[in-house]
Amino acid sequence: MCSKQTSRISRRGFTLVELLVVIAIIGVLVGLLLPAVQAAREAARRMQCSNNMKQLGLALHNYHDVNKRFPPCSIDGGGKIGILVRLLPFMEQQNLFEQVRYDGNYVQNLPMAQNRIDGFLCPSGPEQFSVSTAANEADLYTTHYYGNSGPIGTNAQTNQTYVRDTTRENASFGEYATDGVFQLRSNLRFADITDGTTNTIGMGEVSYEQYKFYRAWTRGLYWYNGVALLSTKNHKWPINAAKNGGFTMTFNNGGYGSQHPSGAMFGMMDGSVRFVSETIDMTAYRAAASRGSGEVKGL
What stretch or stretches form a coiled coil here (predicted)? Predict the structure, then answer.
């Protein structure tokens, strides 16, 4: 008669030490992976922002082809609409453009800004809405792209101060540059950009959290004992300077910058788009904002 022996199978699980080691390894791998994922996402957002700027540049060229001039930054009367409103027909927004009113004041055109235009917003921008406390501007979409009104400072080529319109300035709004591409009631053409379209900034990016003057994308200016520029900005401070709290911010000198690491997007008047580093020499930066002051430096 055969005897049966019961065999025991021993099963061994993870020890606590082994489990902690595995968790630590997984944590390291996740820590290595997350920055790569975030970098890839930012690269995609930056590419989309560049495409937005490219489309705005093409719209400016098409506007010039039709009207034989570039759009004014606004008109100090009527609806006070900004640059972006005038570009709507050239960005497949003709139906929205037909809603524009030129009588009365800017309030009549504010309802248009209930429409979100993806091409007016940087995907990395933290704020998509007007930050105005006025009841009639609450929850309206803003823009992250602004026209170049010109440089503020000294022309290193001539050692002369860049031209300004001091009659339209007050301390609260800041200076009013006039050597850029977009002015009140202007009729500037390609021929007026004597520094060359390749060397002259058309539009730049303002899309960082510290900027406190976002307004509805329909608006071009605000007038009260001087002009507050709402669709253009001066080039006075270094790129991204406001993110470090380095100066007192005003409407006109809000400072270009972005949430993209180390710089911001700029569209040149030849239609090209450039990512400009925040460390760019200020002489070259202001020279690129001037349309006809004869500087030799460029971006």
Answer: none
